Amino acid sequence: MLFSVIIPVYNKSKIIQICVDSVLNQNFNDYELLVIDDGSTDESIEKIKVRENVIVLRKENGGVSSARNYGVINSKGEYICFLDADDYWEPEHLSTLYEMIVQYPSEKMFSTSHRIRQLNGQIEWNDILSAYDSSIILVDDLFELWLRKKSKRIICSDTVCIKREVFDEVGLFEEGVSQGEDTDMWFRIAAYYKVVLSKKLTATYQREFSDATKYYKNNYEWIFASREDDLVNDFRIPEEKRKNIVKYIDRYRMNNCRSMLFENNRKKAREYLKDVKYKADLRYIITLLCLICPDCIYRPLFRKMLGGMYADI
User: Fold this and answer.
1) pLDDT in tens, 233-266
2) How far apart are CA 49 and CA 123, in angstroms?
3) Regarding the domain delimited by 3-214, which CATH topology (the fold level of the hierarchy) does it fall under?
4) Rounded CA gap, 234 and 195, in Å?
């Protein structure tokens, strides 16, 4: 079995059929599909259990990390793929991943590209890979690419494919975390491994149906940021990548600082900013100016930043 596809489900009866059918309609057949029912109370499972080639595993409600972990533990594939019940794949998603694996058989983390269907129906996607000549790109340091391209949307849960043995080495999804548990996992893996990326758009993330969008709030306690000391002191990670990890977490802290300023919590804003490690960075200087300026100055300044080169931080 080459691929195990894991779909965690909790009360998605309105959309789950589209998601499951997008897997069953793949033009690549060497996979198993595991739907993990995380204690649904609606008709989600009834709508798909009649489908052939769908393995339904039920468990008590424990959150999306718990459901994904349950799927990983009970799967058999050499590579693990994830798809959220809100979203769907194009028919060539798995065949594209297979091509990437054939081209880079020694690598362990892969991701195609994805589009985002916004609440107003508008379709967006990240085209930062367009600068590369090849359609499949091997990235040594994903953090460096994130920092250089100022992007948060290079990979997502719907596009990643991870070799099974990686979970034995970095661990499973952090349970009991309500936000950022997926990015924590992808960043943890990217800290230790190269990443193979494809320009091909093979997945659609639908914000209309996403609970993460519906209940979104700024994540002030991102679990990955709490791992900074362990990662910085792990000499299995190349030195330059460790520096880039710190810079990326610095960017997260500066974003939290500015968000706290807008919530009129200057004390908490100062706490986030004092933890920034690279204080010579221009972003730090601008954020510090926002912190020491009165409201009537920093709010217009920050709005101008949002419309310019610092909109992503």
Assistant:
1) 999 999 999 999 999 999 999 989 988 887 889 8
2) 31
3) Spore Coat Polysaccharide Biosynthesis Protein SpsA; Chain A (3.90.550)
4) 19
pLDDT at 307 over 60: no
Classify 23 as helix, strand or coil: helix
Phi/psi at 119 (nearest 5 deg)?
-60, -30
The span from the CA of 187 to the CA of 142, in Å, is: 9
The answer to whether 241 and 144 are in contact (CB under 8 A) is: yes
- pTM for the complete prediction? 0.89
What single-letter amino acid sits at 265?
N
Q: Where are the alpha helices (DSSP H) in 62-175?
A: 64-74, 93-103, 142-149, 165-170
Of 143, 168, 18, the C-alpha closest to 80 is 168
The pLDDT mean for the chain works out to: 89
Residue labelled with tokens 């694996």: 101
Exposed/middle/buried for residue 213 (C-beta within 10 Å: 0-12, 13-18, 19+):
middle
Distance (Å, whole) CA 156 – CA 205: 9
Where exactly are the structural domains of the chain? 3-214, 225-306
Task: List, for residues 293-303, the tens digit of each pLDDT value.
Answer: 777 666 676 66
Buried/exposed 77-100: b ≥16 CB within 10 Å, e otherwise: bebbbbbbbbbbbbebbbbbbbbb
> Nearest to residue 135, comparing CAs of 166, 106, 92?
92
- Distance between first and last Cα of the chain: 41
Which is more confidently placed, 272 or 49? 272
